[in-house]
Amino acid sequence: MEFPVGPELVELFVGNGKLRAMWEMLTRDAEVNAYLASANRMAVGRLRYNDHGPVHSRIVAGSALAIFEVLTSRGFTPDIVRFGIGDLEDARLVTMAIAYLHDIGNSIHRTHHPLFSVIITDKLMDKLLPRIYSDEKMYHVKQEILHGVFCHDEAYTCLTVESAMAKIADGTDMSEGRARIPYSAGKKDIHAVSAMSIRRVWITQGHEKPLAINVDMTSDAGIFQVDEVLGRKIATSGLAPHVEVRVHVKGSHWITRVFETTHNIVTG
């Protein structure tokens, strides 16, 4: 299995049923779309940060579902299933919703945006989830989504497999396209320069670990994105012992990087 990170990836997984219903609601809802556009206006337009809008949301959702596919195929049990809340489709829905909405709080302010994302997502889920669930499960699903949205930031530790998958997926959106707007506007800091050197990212089963994130770059500058963005998310995901990052710099050999943590999620 090889899954290239990009905005088209999500369509491989949404299928039909509950996951498709949630995907279509998230991508078509006027309120969601307005808040994500506002998040990008704040992050890119005002702060000259990398993309934090609807394209980033779509990319991270696809990566999260790809990671879900890889890890569940290797025997990992999502928390929704482990605690008897729902089935694998419910777990996919939670993972995808976390990934799609994690940055929506940037529409208020970059500072404390994980908390603002939770506040906005709470309100959105009260509107959207009753269209899919009609019993108590709806409230359990919402809380699992809110946990993951809050924990996407590397300052916080994930306590569920679904939140960890979405968090790692967030770090996979680091190729040149995400930095092109601030870079072309004159922002030449290490974040922009590093991202511009990354040509391709894809998700596969690992050689020595269950999950591998593969990164192809044109210069060593891309290592900053790997270590300081993706690496910090992996380290606080709770799944670090199960993830390897394989890096290829033009003209060199593949190098495997691992990121250790003292906290491990129960995965079975």
Strand/helix succession = EHHHHHHHHHHEEHEE
Q: Proportion of β residues?
A: 5-15%
Number of strands: 5
Number of helices: 11
Please state the average pLDDT score. Answer: 91
Global Rg = 17 Å
Distance between the termini: 22 Å
CATH architecture of the largest domain: Orthogonal Bundle
CATH topology of the largest domain: Hypothetical protein af1432
| Residue windows where pLDDT falls under 50 for at least 5 positions | none
Helix content: 40-55%
Strand order of the largest sheet: 1-2-3-4-5
At the first level of CATH, the class of the largest domain is Mainly Alpha
Biggest beta-sheet profile: 5 strands, mixed
Please state the structural category: alpha+beta
How would you describe what is shown here?
There is one protein chain. This protein is of the alpha+beta class and about 270 residues long. The chain folds into two domains: about 1-170, Hypothetical protein af1432 (Orthogonal Bundle), CATH 1.10.3210; about 175-255, no CATH class. The protein has helices spanning about 15-30, 30-45, 55-75, 80, 90-100, 115-130, 135-150, 160-170, 175-185, 190-195, 225-235, and strands at about 1-5, 200-205, 210-215, 245-250, 255. A five-stranded mixed β-sheet has the order 1-2-3-4-5. The chain is globular. The mean pLDDT is about 90.
